[in-house]
Amino acid sequence: MDFMLSPSHQLLKDLYHDFTETKIKPLSHEMDEAEMLSMGLLNEMQKSGFFGIPFSEKYGGAGADYLAYALCMEEVSKADASCGITISVHTSLCCGSINEFGTEAQKQEFLRPLVNGSKFGCYSLTEPNAGSDAAGIQTFAQRIGDEYVLNGTKVFTTNSGFADTFVVFAYTDKAMGIEGMSAFILDSKTEGIHVSANIPRMGIRASSNCEVVYENVRIPASNLLGKEGKGFDIAMAALDGGRIGIGAQAVGIAQGALNEVIKYVKERKQFGKAIGSFQNTKFKIAEMQTKIDAARLMVWRAALEKDAHKDYTTYAAMCKLFASDVANEVTRDCVQLFGGYGYCREYPVERMMRDAKITEIYEGTSEVMKMVISSNIKVR
């Protein structure tokens, strides 16, 4: 058992870190204030291979693995969680679904441009009345000849404001329950797709997150992803992988906040001393770093299980549950150590605290993670 990164993984981590420090971090505050990502920055990330990390070179991907993707998610999220979730939804949910369940023709048509840096993707599952209960969606696709006609409303669809390719879930036979749900691949320019303005949010404010209305959208039958009636399975499989990315994002948010604190406590003086010299501060930093490292190792374990093609569902849920809890605890403590300045938007820990909260909610709430874990616990 080796807890050290291989030389190739360390090299990738360093590359992600350097890009983040030089390209993303300088724009993080500006993008959060504007509540909009820099498309120029996203295009640079595309060119640098950030959107095709764990996919085969056969389709234009980087040919790396899920551990490399987790390393990228952590490094990017240390500086900007909005960029992190943009990568995550594109990679884990949209591309992951097509890569695992798509036909060869679908991979050539849709996956290739998504992973080679030509297009962006999104994943459209959540609805106004169907969040944790994915089976409660109302969107319906009726088969008419060689097409499906899609109608429904989705919400909190990350990347939808600029995505080129949508993976959408709808019932094709409501009488069958979850066995009547199907998945489809759509071109965003298809007539009848209406994307709202960005939904105002507490955190990850720069990411694109919109309501999408599908009104008599005609989809070629060839764009059915997997088999009819397998949509629920596809959605759950994608979310399993996505939870590893969110776990890594949570680790990145926490580590990024702690890094800011470590620098700050060396400079900030109270009672004639740097506050970093006080035992309370030292002990608090020690506790935070220990928890972050534990969360990081849980993320790596889940990623390695996925790379080994083992059943990683429980490990993915565990790493997301624990890492998201750590991110929220650590960012709160970091704001506290910054004092009044930590409450000001001028300092990044305020943004990081806001960003951390969503990691306990999206791609499965902490409560859902506990349901997944408890249903798979065995005597050891």
Automatic annotation (TrEMBL):
Signal peptide coordinates: none
Record's protein name: Acyl-CoA dehydrogenase
Gene Ontology MF: a single term: flavin adenine dinucleotide binding
Domain of life: Bacteria
Residue ranges of every copy of the Acyl-CoA oxidase/dehydrogenase middle domain listed in the record: 122-217
Family: Belongs to the acyl-CoA dehydrogenase family.
Cofactor: FAD
Acyl-CoA dehydrogenase/oxidase C-terminal domain: residues covered: 229-376
SUPFAM superfamilies for the chain: Acyl-CoA dehydrogenase C-terminal domain-like (SSF47203), Acyl-CoA dehydrogenase NM domain-like (SSF56645)
Keywords for this protein: FAD, Flavoprotein, Oxidoreductase
Gene3D superfamilies: Acyl-CoA dehydrogenase/oxidase, N-terminal domain (1.10.540.10), Butyryl-CoA Dehydrogenase, subunit A, domain 2 (2.40.110.10), Butyryl-CoA Dehydrogenase, subunit A, domain 3 (1.20.140.10)
Database matches in Pfam families: Acyl-CoA_dh_1, Acyl-CoA_dh_M, Acyl-CoA_dh_N
Organism: Youngiibacter fragilis 232.1
Domain called Acyl-CoA dehydrogenase/oxidase N-terminal: residue spans: 7-117
